[in-house]
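Final paragraph of the annual report: two paired records, presented back to back.
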Amino acid sequence: MSQQPSGWYDDPSQPDMLRYWDGVSWTNHTAPKKSPTASQSTIGLPQQARSDQASADRTGAAAPTPTTPVPQGSGWQSQSQTPQYYQQAPANAQWMYNIRTTADGIPLASWGRRLGAWFIDGIIISLVGGAVSWAATPRMGQLFSEMMTAAEANDSARLTAIQGELTGPALQFSFILWLLTTAYCLVFWTTTAQTPGKMALGISVRRAAEPGPLPLGVAVLRRLVPLAGQFVPFLSLLDGLWPLWDDKRQALHDKVAGTQVVQGKQPRKQA
C-alpha cells in the first residue's frame, strides 16, 4: 500500500468535493470541486502534471490528461480518471476563511503545531546535544565540581575565581551545542523535510515556491536568524512569535530563506 504526497484529491465520500490528504490520512479540510477555472487547475495534481499544465498555459496547447492515484480509506488505490480540480475555491467557501495555504493550495501549519514540534525537538537536542557537548568540554565539569566544593566550604574567593574561569568552557559548550543543533536541522530539512518534532505533529518545511525537502543552501539560510538570536536580545523571541500575525505564517527565519511550514509530508526527491 503506497503513500502519496500531501495535497488536494477527490473526496472518496463526496464526489462533488475535494478533500486534503496530509500524506498519512484524510483531514477535515474540504472544498467544492466545481469552479469556472476547473480546466486550469493544478491543485491536487502530481508535480509533473502541474508542470505540464503550466507549460500548456504558456503555449496555449492542451495539457496531457493525468492518471492520478486516488486515496481510498487509509491507503491508496490506483484509478484511471480525469480529475477536475480548480485553481481557486468560490468566495463563499468556508475553508478559505479558516485555512491559510501556500500559493499552490497546501494548508499551512498552525503556530500551535510549530510550537509543539519545537518543544519536542528542544527536548531531544537538550538531552542528546547537551550530553555530547558536556562530554566534549571536560573542563566545564571539573569547574562545576570545584564550585560545589567551594560553596560547601563557604570559600567566596574561590567561587569568584571559578566564575571567571567558567567563561571560556561555557562559550565552548554553547558553540558545540549550536553546531549539533544546526547539523540536526540541516540533516532532517534536506532529507525528509521533517525533524522528529515535525514528524510527530504531522507538519513539514518546504520552499514557498515549490514542494520537496530543502536544498542545502536554503537550509543554511534558515539557520541564520537563530544564529543572530544568540547575540541580539529578544530576536529569538520575536522570530518564534512572528507567525502569529504574519499573513503567510512565516517566522523571520522563513522570511530569510523563503520557506513555509505546511501540513503533511513532502514528496521525496526523484533519484
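The closing record of the year follows.
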Amino acid sequence: MLKSVYLAGPEVFYPEARQHGRRMQAVCAEQGLAGLFPLDAEIPATPQGQSLAIYQANRALIDRADAVVANLRDFRGFEPDSGTVWEVSYALARGKPVVGYCPTAATIAERLQASPHGRLFDAQCAVENFGLPLNLMLAHSLTAIAYGSETHFAGLKAALAQLQGI
C-alpha cells in the first residue's frame, strides 16, 4: 500500500514555491498520502556545496517515497524540466511506480504547430511526431500519464487517482 509520494516538477522554481508545495501536500493528504516536496529538505544556506546538497536530498526523498508523481508540463520550451525527467528516471530505475501529468493530451507536434513558428523543427533538429504528449522514452516508461487542464492541482489530483489504482 502506498503511503508516500515524491512530488517531482518545476514547482521549486515557482514564485512562492514553498507555499505551492504545501498546497500540493494538502492534495496528497486528501488522498491519504504523505507528499514529499523537494524544498522540505534541509539545505545549507551557503552556495558552496548547495547544489550537491540539493541533489543528495532529492535523491534521499525519492528513495524514501513509495512512488513518484511528476509534473511534466512544458518548461523552458516544449519539453519537461530536465531535473524532473532525471528524478522520474531515477525512480523508475529504483522500481518505483511513476505517474506523470501534463496540462493537455496534445502531442508535441500539435503544440509546436500551434506555436507562432508553426513548424515541426526547432532551430537545429527535427521534432519527433509519434502522437505522444512527451518524448517517446519518457511516455513509454511511465506507469501512467494523467491530464488536468483546468489547474495544476487538477493534474496532480488526476495523477494521484491513477497512482491509487496501481
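The first helix runs from residue 17 to 30. This concludes the annual technical report; the extension proposal builds directly on these records.
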